[in-house]
Structure formats: structure tokens, C-alpha cells
Amino acid sequence: MRASLLQIQVDPHESVDSRRERVASLVRDQAGADLVVLPELWTVGAFAFERFATEAEEADPATGPTALAMSAAARDAGVWLHAGSVVEKGHEAGALYNTSLVFSPSGELVATYRKIHRFGFDRGEATLLAAGTTPVTVPHPQATLGLATCYDLRFPELFRALVDAEPEGARVLVVPAGWPAKRAGHWTLFARTRAVENQCFVLACGTAGSHAGVAQAGRSAIIDPWGEILAQSEDNAETVVTADLDVSQVDKVRETFPVLKDRVL
């Protein structure tokens, strides 16, 4: 499985429409990849709280401008695309969600995931957005994907649920983020830890630049089930991080070091 992470620059001087068009072009450039991943809230910026309501997209995610643009880009490139996340208008009056979108190579929206753990400690995202409630896996042809978003990375029980999901648990954990630079060490640490403890690949896709003045960590990384970094961005500049994943390695690691079988709780 060839995976490509697009570490997108979020520039406050670039309009959302322009960035959407530019990112669609970048996705089209990834023809030949088996999975392309975009960061969290790359259209508006994960810390641009004052813009969440104005940039929110319709409750049916497939009809929003980002979904339409990413659907077309996935279809044109012939790739599976995790299009990062958007601010979604919920059906409930006034409710907003941080919602990830996954498209098949035909451009079909095959999965959505509403971020369960909201960051902010009773401020920012934690007060402006509603929480999702359901872990989501996606049956990619080469390996089942488990979906999580940014702050979710700090909560290992979510990843256990993804690994234990029926009919087949996750083998590749996909984590788009808008992670702050001042905690960049935690970003890498947690991504590698989730890989080791769940014996999965982890695709950790961050953003470049800054979101509403909050410098981003970048450091997008592709990590194998032993916690080894197969590829990683060197800084927080816009770039593409690509690696080939031998997904059979997941089963091999679990067979040779069967730690998951020894769980008690």
C-alpha cells in the first residue's frame, strides 16, 4: 500500500476557496497512491475558532463544497482519499462537528467520522463543537483503516476499539491533525506509541504554517507496527510524505510478538 500524507500550509491570507482548489490539484498529483491523507480542518484552520460557524458545511457532508471538490479530485486521481476534516453543521439546531471525510477512487463518500475528543479544556473547540460518539473503521481493499483526529491521539481506548472492531479491526490508523508546535514532541511520541501498543501502521498527517497564530508542529509521519518511522517531514513546511506499507507486516508482528492476546481488561 502506497500512502501519501499531504502536509498542507494553512495561510490566513489565502481564501478558503483558493486553498480548496489548490489542495484538489495536489490530490490529483498523487495518482498512483493507494491512500492519500489530508490534515484536520485544513480549509479553515484548527484554531480559527471565530470562523467555525461561518465556514461550516451542510449536515449532509457529501453536498458541501469541500466534499464536492475532494470527491472530484479522488475520482480524477483514482485514489482512496481521507480528505481530512471539515466543520460540519449537525442536524440539531446550532450543532457543529469536526467531521472527517473518506472517499473511494470512484469519488463516493464511503465514511465519515465525527471527532470524539474535543480539545480546549472548556474553551475553543471543546465549547464550540459537539462530540462524536462512534468509532469508525473503513474497509480499504488492502487494509482496514481506523479513523481518529488530532486530540483523539491522547486517548488509547479509542484505538483499542478500532483494533477490536467487527467484522475486521483496524490495521492502519489514520490520524489527521492540527497539532501545535509547542507540543510537537507529544505528537510524535503518541503516534509511535499508538503504533506499538496496537501493532498497527499509523499515518499521522499534520499541517504546516500556523492556524490563527498558533504555530503548527508539522512532522507528518508514517510509522510501522514496531514504532519505526518509515517517512517523516523535516519541518512544518508544506510537503508530501510518502512510504510503501507492507500491510502483511501487521499480522507478522502480531504473530511473532502476540501481546494483544495477553490483554486482561
From TrEMBL:
<feature type="domain" description="CN hydrolase">
    <location>
        <begin position="1"/>
        <end position="247"/>
    </location>
</feature>
<dbReference type="Pfam" id="PF00795">
    <property type="entry name" value="CN_hydrolase"/>
</dbReference>
<dbReference type="InterPro" id="IPR036526">
    <property type="entry name" value="C-N_Hydrolase_sf"/>
</dbReference>
<dbReference type="GO" id="GO:0016787">
    <property type="term" value="F:hydrolase activity"/>
</dbReference>
<keyword id="KW-0378">Hydrolase</keyword>
<protein>
    <submittedName>
        <fullName>Carbon-nitrogen family hydrolase</fullName>
    </submittedName>
</protein>
<dbReference type="InterPro" id="IPR003010">
    <property type="entry name" value="C-N_Hydrolase"/>
</dbReference>
<comment type="similarity">
    <text>Belongs to the carbon-nitrogen hydrolase superfamily. NIT1/NIT2 family.</text>
</comment>
